[in-house]
Amino acid sequence: MTETVVASVMSANAFVSLVEGRINEQGMSYLEAITDVCEKTGLEFENVSKLMTPTMRKLLAAEATSLNLLKRTGSRLPI
After folding, report:
1. CA angle (77 as vertex; 72, 79 as ends), nearest 5
2. Is the pLDDT of residue 24 over 80?
3. DSSP for 27-52?
4. Which phi and psi angles does 3 have, rounded to 5°?
5. What's the pLDDT at 77?
6. Phi, psi dihedral angles at 18 (to 5 degrees)
7. Is the pLDDT of residue 6 over 80?
8. pLDDT at residue 39 greater than cutoff 60
9. Among 11, 28, 66, 75, which residue's beta carbon has the most beta carbons within 10 A?
10. Neighbours of 69 (CB within 10 A)
11. What is the mean pLDDT of residues 63-70?
């Protein structure tokens, strides 16, 4: 898929396709790929949440948690 998709009419499928293409082809993380797609297409970061699939949300949250960008949820035993 080309990057000439106009950001104002980008569908969720087109967005997911662009992000996953970068992850598979260039070895980017989800956070890097989403940022790159937004920069290249002119898509506002505020609109990304509307275009993400539930699976992509989970993968992005797991990545952010591993990078300590999100707090870990669930119970942890004190050491």
Report:
1. 110
2. yes
3. ---HHHHHHHHHHHHT--GGGHHHH-
4. -90, 10
5. 65
6. -65, -45
7. no
8. yes
9. 28
10. 11
11. 88
Residue 79 in contact with residue 43, Cβ under 8 Å?
A: no
Backbone region of residue 64 per phi and psi (left: phi > 0; alpha: psi in -120 to 50; beta: other values): alpha
- What letter does residue 4 receive in the DSSP assignment? T
Which residue type does 5 have?
A: V
Contact status, residue 64 vs residue 32, Cβ threshold 8 Å: no
For residues 26 and 3, the model is more confident at: 26
**Mean pLDDT taken over the chain:** 85
Token couple for 13: 């499928």
d(CA 6, CA 38): 11
